């Protein structure tokens, strides 16, 4: 079985690698934003959410949060997706 330190190191590396497209999205010229939008919205952010919540709260909570993120962004947009993550995070603490 893999040790916790190794698992954390792998998840941290994945987290950093998938943050690179977001940096490109933020600092790219305005004309190139459509090239990055789908990758950032449907690949980078869900992987960042998955790896971040997995390190913080475990795999079960991470999978629920990614499914909730993708459903909210598909149905209602970024505002609802962010609000759903905040509500899920608060509900976990209760």
Which helices and strands, and how do they pair?
Elements: H1 4-17, H2 20-27, H3 33-57, H4 59-75, H5 78-93
Helix pairs in contact: 1-3, 2-3, 3-4, 4-5
Structure, described:
The chain is mainly alpha-helical and 94 residues long. The chain has one domain. Helices cover 85% and strands 0% of the residues. Helix 3 packs antiparallel against helix 4. It is flat, with a radius of gyration of 14 Å.
Provide keyphrases for this structure:
94 residues, 0% strand, mainly alpha, 5 helices
- Tally the structural domains: 1
Distance between the termini: 32 Å
Q: In terms of per-residue confidence, which ranges show pLDDT below 50 for 5 or more consecutive residues? A: none
- Percent in strands: under 5%
**H and E order:** HHHHH
Short description:
This protein is mainly α. It is built from five helices and no strands.
């Amino acid at each position: 079985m893999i040790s916790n330190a190794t698992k954390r190191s792998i998840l941290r590396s994945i987290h950093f690698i998938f943050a690179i497209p977001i940096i490109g999205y933020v600092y790219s010229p305005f004309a190139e934003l459509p090239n990055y939008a789908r990758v950032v919205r449907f690949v980078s952010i869900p992987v960042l959410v998955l790896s971040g919540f997995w390190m913080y709260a475990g795999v079960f909570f991470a999978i629920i949060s990614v499914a909730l993120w993708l459903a909210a962004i598909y149905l209602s947009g970024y505002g609802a997706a962010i609000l759903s993550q905040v509500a899920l995070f608060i509900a976990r603490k209760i």
